[in-house]
């Protein structure tokens, strides 16, 4: 698919906020989404495995992107996909990301996707407000990653994937043996949300072995704690560890 088939690439708008008329959603190629994410998303990358990319277009061009791909966690049910990136152009601050997100979810439902999972990272100042505004279900605080991150003396952070690329291991003991001036820490838990599309809520949560929890608040954070299976089941039922 050519870029011209879906609309022009985003261009800087020197006059401030962009017009919101007209708005249209369309599938876009991976390279177009990846370039938009590189410019405007705080992570700056779009994983190659992401295979469903949607763009929102106004009268200037591409103003927002939603990208979906395989779930990080292999424990999630077959067919579930993950919202990997959601971002808008800085000058498109008057558009509704929640409306755009809802539009893409309707398209995924028509295409037969059973449910979509996403994560809000409190370490990046996110608590999932966009998911709460679009009625996603918040499940128990959960992290698919129990691996240590590392902090250099200058304050910069090396996550477990980067550590493995650098040293061939992400073991806390082995990495600190090579870099004794570093310190290891567990990252804050991410908040997990799910949107059932072709499933009833109860069936979706049963397949995930999860329970619905009250929405977290903006300042709320949860530190990862290793729970035994018994204590984890108790936590899922009562929220008390």
Outline the structure in words:
This protein starts with about 25 loop residues before the first strand and ends with a helix. Helices cover about 25% and strands about 20% of the residues. The model is unreliable at about 1-15, about 225-230 and about 235-240 (pLDDT under 50). Strand 7 and strand 8 form a beta hairpin. The strands form two sheets. It has a seven-stranded mixed β-sheet with strand order 1-2-3-4-5-10-6, sandwiched between helices. A three-stranded antiparallel β-sheet has the order 8-7-9. The chain is globular and about 55 Å long. It folds into two domains: about 5-145 and about 190-240, Gcn5-related N-acetyltransferase (GNAT) (Aminopeptidase), CATH 3.40.630.30; about 145-185, no CATH class. It contains seven helices and ten strands. The protein is α+β, with helices and mostly antiparallel strands and about 240 residues long. It has helices at about 30-40, 95-110, 130-135, 160-165, 170-180, 200-210, 230-240, and strands at about 25, 50-55, 60-70, 80-90, 115-120, 135-140, 150, 155-160, 185, 190-195.
The H-and-E topology, N to C, reads as EHEEEHEHEEEHHEEHH
If helices are DSSP runs of H or I spanning 4 or more residues, what is the number of helices? 7
The amount of beta strand, in percent, is 15-25%
Number of domains: 2
In which range does the helix fraction lie? 25-40%
The largest β sheet comes out as: 7 strands, mixed
Cα Rg: 20 Å
Q: What's the number of extended β-strand segments? A: 10
CATH superfamily of the largest domain: Gcn5-related N-acetyltransferase (GNAT)
CATH architecture of the largest domain: 3-Layer(aba) Sandwich
Named CATH topology of the largest domain: Aminopeptidase
CATH class of the largest domain: Alpha Beta
Overall 3D form:
globular
How would you state the average pLDDT, rounded?
Answer: 81
Strand order of the largest sheet: 1-2-3-4-5-10-6
Low-confidence stretches: 1-15, 223-228, 235-241
Distance from first to last alpha carbon? 51 Å
Structural class designation: alpha+beta
The multimeric state of the shown protein is single chain
């Amino acid at each position: 698919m050519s870029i011209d088939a879906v609309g022009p690439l985003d261009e800087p708008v020197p006059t401030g906020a962009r017009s919101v008329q007209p708005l249209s959603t369309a599938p876009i190629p991976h390279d177009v989404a990846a370039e938009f994410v590189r410019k405007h998303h705080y992570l700056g990358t779009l994983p190659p495995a992401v295979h469903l990319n949607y763009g929102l277009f106004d009268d200037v061009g591409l103003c927002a992107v939603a990208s979906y791909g395989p779930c990080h966690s292999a424990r999630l049910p077959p067919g579930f996909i993950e919202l990997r990136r959601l971002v808008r152009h800085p000058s498109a601050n008057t558009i509704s990301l929640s409306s755009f997100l809802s539009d893409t979810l309707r398209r995924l439902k028509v295409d037969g996707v059973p449910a979509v999972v996403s994560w809000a990272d409190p370490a990046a100042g996110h608590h999932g407000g966009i998911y709460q505004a679009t009625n996603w279900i918040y499940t128990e605080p959960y992290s698919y990653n129990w691996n240590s991150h590392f902090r250099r003396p200058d304050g910069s952070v090396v996550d477990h994937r980067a550590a493995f690329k650098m040293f061939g291991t992400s073991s806390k003991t082995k990495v600190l043996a090579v870099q004794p001036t570093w310190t290891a820490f567990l990252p804050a838990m991410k908040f997990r949300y799910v949107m059932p599309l072709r499933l009833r809520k109860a069936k979706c949560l049963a397949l995930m072995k999860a329970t619905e929890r009250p929405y977290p608040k903006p300042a709320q954070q949860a530190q990862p704690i290793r729970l035994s299976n018994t204590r984890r089941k108790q936590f899922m039922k009562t929220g008390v560890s």
